[in-house]
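Objective 1b of the project was to move from sequence-level analysis to a structural picture of ligand recognition. The entry below was assembled by the postdoctoral researcher (A.K.) and checked by the PI before modelling. It contains the amino acid sequence of the target and the SMILES of the bound compound, flavin mononucleotide.
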Amino acid sequence: MAKKALILYYSWSGTTAKMAQALQKVSQATAIELTVKPGTFSTDMYQTSDIAKQQLATESLPMLNNQLPDLNDYDLLLVGGPVWSGEPATPVQQLLKQVPANYAGIIAPFYTSAGGDEQYQANFQKLTAARVVKGLGLSGSSFSNETTTINNWWKQLN
Ligand SMILES: Cc1cc2nc3c(=O)[nH]c(=O)nc-3n(C[C@H](O)[C@H](O)[C@H](O)COP(=O)(O)O)c2cc1C
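Corresponding predicted holo structure:
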């Protein structure tokens, strides 16, 4: 039987949202876009980078606006977001903190970047005790031709 999957994603500028939509289409899983309080980040990339670094330095990850369902009801969490300085964006880090310590399912990361995502999988893994499988990273520029890649990744997760 196919796993019961939930898509949870954050997208600052819409690219990971497109990937999440493609994944939703193929998986038919429920998708939840994670949001933070308006004004948490800037509309400027460099300022947003500074804000995120400050959040990490002061261990003050932004709160999520979302009321999450009981994550233990799902076998597979598809967790998406942009790569920020090689790391999961801080709202994704906040989400990972909210995964129950005893979560017995699998987490599969998906992410978009400008091409510099080599450290992402390892950095993501460090943020949770849950089982993390090999994720799928795409770079924004090549994104439109990636439906087959997304479909294949989804298939091998099941
Ligand atoms: C704060 C910030 C930091 C970023 N850091 C990286 C990075 O380390 N490596 C990279 O390849 N792209 C980096 N980028 C580019 C984004 O990862 C990329 O544009 C991504 O596709 C944006 O996804 P989104 O539209 O879902 O937010 C960064 C962008 C921002 C705003």
